[in-house]
Amino acid sequence: YNYLAETENIGKTESGTITIFFLDLRNFTKYCCFLDGSDVYKAKAAVIETVINICLMYEGHIHEIPGDGVMVFWGGKQADDIEMSQRAINAASDAMKTLEEEIIPAYNQDPKYPNIHPKMGIDYGDVVWGAYGAEPNYEVKATSFYADIASKMMSQCKAREVAIGDSLKEQMFVGDDDDDYLEKKDPYKRQLTVKIGRAHV
Q1: Which of 8, 14, 21, 171 is nearest to 88 (CA)?
Q2: What pLDDT does 187 receive?
Q3: What digits encode the pLDDT tens for the residues 23-77?
């Protein structure tokens, strides 16, 4: 959808469906108030670089890096929505596993660095693509409830958890098979099972 940022297309929009992934570092902003900025940068950069590289391995598209987070999407024209959602879930699983095994131990035990507590949210749905900005600087962005909720729904998510949105749940887990994946007491939450770096769905 990059063509929407060309001068002759400013103001035009196009609809599509995507799976959106959002990473946020819990309570990270406060660290700049009492830790050295360069040390805060090192910890944040290590997380962001790790997550981006893993998402790129699963052919995700980096949408933006807002503050201490990362937004990535999967999908587009002629894309298989189920496959794209599967890639997003696998990327989130691998990213969390790598952060827990490699990045968090390297920083959380050193008092000069911030404690890294990642949270992730994934959802699927319809979006409208269009360019935002002012001449000559325009950037193509997705506008929709689903694009925003992937970050907002993490307010209910604990550190080191991946929140799965209702729309993604309904797309990926339909019919009687729900009972194999979802906890009886809370049908909107489930655990990702990691085996050889893959999330089982």
Answers
A1: 21
A2: 40
A3: 999 888 889 899 999 999 999 999 999 999 999 999 999 999 988 899 999 998 8
Report whether 189 contacts 122 (CB < 8 A): no
Crossing angle for the helix pair 81-98 and 37-57, nearest 10 degrees?
140
* Cβ-contact 140, 5 below 8 angstroms: yes
Peptide bond into 136 cis (omega under 30): yes
Please tell me the distance from the alpha carbon of residue 173 to that of residue 171, in angstroms, as a whole number: 6
Residues 6+ apart with CB under 8 A from 35: 112, 113, 114
Q: Which residue has the tokens 């969390």?
A: 96
Quick check: helix, strand or coil at residue 88? helix
DSSP-derived letter for residue 42 is H
Q: 3-state SS of the chain: helix, strand, coil percent to 5?
A: 45, 25, 30
Distant-in-sequence, close-in-space partners of 179: CB < 8 Å, separation ≥ 6: none
What is the rounded (10 degree) CA torsion for 94, 50, 42, 123? -70
Q: Up-side HSE of residue 194: CA atoms within 13 Å toward CB? A: 15
User: Cα 40 to the chain's mean position, in Å?
Assistant: 21
Pairing of strands 69-75, 61-64: antiparallel
pTM, to two decimals: 0.82
Helix (H, G, I), strand (E, B) or coil at 18: strand
